[in-house]
Amino acid sequence: MESKFSALRWALEMTQFWKLALPDKRFPVDVEAIATEVSRARFPKDPLKGIEGGNLPGFEGALYPLGNPRDGWGIIYNNAGVAPGRKRFTIAHEFGHYLAHRHTLPPEGVKCDSKAIIRRDGAGIEKEADEFAAYLLMPYDDFKQHIPPSKKPSIDDLIACADRYGVSLIAATLRWLEYTERRAVFVVSRDGGALWAKSSEPAFKSGRFLRTAKETYMLPDAALAARDEFDSQGRATAIHPPGVWFPEETEEMTIRSKTYDLSLTLLFLPREFRYAAVIQSDLMDTFERMTSRS
Ligand SMILES: [Zn+2]
């Protein structure tokens, strides 16, 4: 019953397969070749028959059945105005659905939107397919050799990893955020409003996150991402005093993505979390809000 493996179990198996097949050239992972070869060898009656790009309205990728009765599957990914890095992650995500979920999908297959694939913010099988893709394309053991969990990476370090794994800067940054020991917050914004944000676990646990789910979070006026003042490489860095982003000193590194008209911002908080001082300052903020309302 190997098709009942979990998505992560499949990712482990695919990684072993790839290591053995091409030990000297592991990265970037050629996900199209793996998907095609593995499905034909392991599931010859139900293989992946095609992987194609297209202009997809409102979604990033899909896995859909072919033939009646079904004799295979197709993957389609969005390639309209999309940088090459995104394509690899989308195909890996759909390959994850094929391996782990194809027996339980509805008759029309599955369509996956940008919230699930680009933000990695889906639930259930979407989350599983994302974990499969991240594990296959950016294994922790390799990633941690390039950016150790205790290291504060530069934007260039993260760009180097994105290039190594052939994924987008957003995908590489989200992967690093999953294991870093640093308190860091990643913010994706446009025109001074945060579209979404994600905190590393140490940042989240210390109360450092942005609420972007229900309404647009307007960036602080002093935020570089809101000021549109970048150097010739489209970058800006600053150390902000307490009270700009959070009630403690915050280092901001922002880079403009012209392809998507987005600003990508990494916020680093001090390594030592001065709990008492921060709680005191938060209490004062709350107190001031309450008294100013009355
Ligand atoms: Zn999906």
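qc> Residues 275-293 form the longest helix (19 residues).
qc> done
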